[in-house]
UniProtKB/TrEMBL annotation:
InterPro entries referenced in this protein's UniProt entry, alphabetically: GmrSD_C (IPR011089)
Upper lineage: Bacteria, Bacillati, Actinomycetota, Actinomycetes, Pseudonocardiales
Coiled coil spans: none
Key words, A-Z: Endonuclease, Hydrolase, Nuclease, Signal
GmrSD restriction endonucleases C-terminal domain location: 93-221
Keyword hit for Signal: yes
Signal peptide start and end residues: 1-21
Pfam families according to UniProt: GmrSD_C (PF07510)
Name under which the protein is recorded: HNH endonuclease family protein
GO MF assignments: endonuclease activity
Domain of life: Bacteria
Length: 229
């Protein structure tokens, strides 16, 4: 009886998520969602991430003076306009991330923009449909980049960092809103099964751009990477 029930549950998960994990079906994560073992290409593995984390310089957060995301009416626009087509292939970064992270992707007719698809959200382990409900998260928030080193960069480096696919993950809009500009000592994905992957992405980006960390941030990232096993 138990085996039949488990098989039925597995079949239901496949129907809902529309994708297979290694071994056939996604595992069930804490909270009832599905485990998502997905990171952007270029993310360091756990041992490398631990070494990179140890090498990140410690510093208190810099001031937010001068930080402005708004690009309209002469505003600061310190990271450039959102979703630049950095590689010149005709597809902006938002569209590229949606196409990479969603399944059953349907593009707008004659365009690269994604019209629909299904997301297995790594932050919650839940399924989201409808592109309007999906947002692109900067794993290392842009405000955090600013206060940990980017304030002193030239504009073109900030634009490149803001559109770096290694720092971008498609997630449910509501969880992205709850995160805001918080660092790992303040916020981690509700899906505890994604702590390792989240830490790896975060550390990889901070190391790539030579950004600093606080002692509390480093401790939280060490805990996240410990969960990698």
């Amino acid at each position: 009886m138990f085996r039949r029930t488990a098989a039925a549950l597995a079949a239901l998960l496949l129907t809902v998520t529309g994708c297979d994990a290694v071994g056939g079906l996604p595992d069930v994560a804490p909270g009832g969602g599905a485990t998502v073992d997905r990171v952007p290409q270029g993310t360091p593995d756990a041992p490398t991430a631990r070494n990179l984390l140890a090498g990140l310089p410690l510093a208190e957060p810099g001031r937010m003076e001068g930080y402005a995301r708004d690009c309209d009416n002469g505003a600061g626009c310190v990271f450039g306009r959102p979703w630049v087509d950095t590689d010149g292939d005709g597809c902006d970064q938002r569209s590229q991330v949606l196409a990479r992270d969603l399944t059953d992707v349907r593009r707008k007719e004659g365009r690269c923009g994604v019209e629909s698809g299904t997301l297995l959200d790594p932050y919650t382990g839940e399924t989201a449909t409808g592109v309007s409900k999906i947002q692109i998260d900067h794993v290392v928030p842009l405000a955090e980049m600013w206060r940990s080193g980017a304030a002193g960069w030239p504009q073109d480096r900030r634009v490149a960092a803001a559109n770096d696919l290694r720092n971008l993950i498609a997630v449910a809009g509501r969880v992205n809103q709850s995160k805001g500009d918080q660092t790992p000592d303040e916020w981690m994905p509700p899906n505890a099964a994604y702590a390792c992957q989240y830490g790896r992405v975060y550390v990889g980006v901070k190391a790539e751009y030579g950004l600093t960390v606080t002692s509390a941030e480093r401790a939280a990232l060490e805990r996240a990477l410990t969960s990698c096993g």
